[in-house]
Amino acid sequence: VFDKLRDAYRTKKYNVFVLEGGSRSSKTHSIIQFWILWAWSNKGKDKRVIVARSKATWVKATVLKDFIDVLKFYKLYDRKSHNKSEGAGIYKLFDTEFWFMGLDDEQRIHGMRSDAFWINEAIEASFEDYAQLMQRCEGFAILDYNPSEEEHWIYDKICKRPKSWYNHSTMLDNRLIPKNAKEQILSYEPTE
Question: What is the largest CA-CA distance in the chain?
């Protein structure tokens, strides 16, 4: 998933990257890997990335925790770079600030400029949330989610645009999935 996202970004054809994927498909880890590479490639430039989820109370336990865990895995986490007092938190990686926030904090979302943004579990967000972030964004957006809806604004208003890139992944795309997790997910498949 990481290679596909990185390669799509490098084409410079897209300003929205949509990643739909099932449980353990590696999409979240791959997106965080992408952000690490992006922040590293922008060293010396002050950048801001908004990382959002529909509710602020969910951000710390989900996407922020995943972000920190991946940084620790790659030995990049530095406690001094993590401001926990501002909203759900701000993490400065190289010269990029990652602002973690809930889309339910409308005052901040409606007024904050960014160089890029990521809506984690975007299926929970509204088109208005996306539009508010996009009109203040100088760069690009990443939207990710588990497939759970057949009709949604992401399919109707985003995926059909020529400047949108779409990728669907499954746990079979994750070379590092633990054997027990793979067996459990495969047990959900219908049998005849």
Answer: 58
- Strands 89-93, 82-83: pairing is antiparallel
DSSP string covering the chain, please? -HHHHHHHHHTT--SEEEEEE-TTSSHHHHHHHHHHHHHHHTTTS-EEEEEEES-HHHHIIIIIHHHHHHHHHTT---GGGEE-SSTTEEEEETTEEEEEEETT-HHHHTT--EEEEEETTGGGS-HHHHHHHHHTEEEEEEEEE-S--SS-HIIIIITTSTTEEEEEE-GGG-TT--HHHHHHHHTTS---
Residue 116 has pLDDT above 50, yes or no: yes
pLDDT given at position 111: 77
Instruction: Check residues 26 and 79 and name the one with the higher pLDDT.
Output: 79
Burial profile 140-178: b = 16 or more Cβ within 10 angstroms, e = fewer: bbbbbbeeeeeebbbeeebbeeeebbbbebbbebbeebe
Instruction: Read off the pTM.
Output: 0.86
